[in-house]
Amino acid sequence: MVGNTEGPVTGLTGEVQAFHNADPAHPREAVVEELGDGRYRFGLDVHRPGLWQWRVVLRRGDQTWRGTLRREVGR
Predict the structure, then answer these.
(1) Which of 16, 43, 59, 75 counts the most CB atoms within 10 A of its CB?
(2) What is the distance between the alpha carbons of residues 8 and 57, in angstroms, rounded to a whole number?
(3) How do residues 23-55 score in pLDDT, each as one tens digit?
């Protein structure tokens, strides 16, 4: 991640929750891991093709960013 003027965004913690659009009662969850230099990763098992919704929460200090994405996952 890159900030507006600060360069790479570091020091974030957070979680990702994902669920298939046809099965929202069974979400998958993962913790975001910082790799350094503004790079982050998480791992989720999204084996079912179709539309998935991703809810991301990132924190640094007293700041929180929340976002929702919808992405099609292929076979």
Answers:
(1) 16
(2) 18
(3) 999 999 999 999 999 899 999 988 899 999 999
Q: Output the DSSP codes for 1-21.
A: -B-SSSSB--S-EEEEEEEET
DSSP β-bridge partners for residue 68: 55
Characterize the bridge pairing of strands 50-60 and 13-20. antiparallel
Partner residues linked to 18 by β-bridges: 28, 54
pLDDT on residue 12? 95
pTM: 0.82
Q: How far is CA 20 from CA 26, 39, 62, in A?
A: 8, 26, 31
Of the chain, the percentage scoring pLDDT greater than 90 comes to: 80
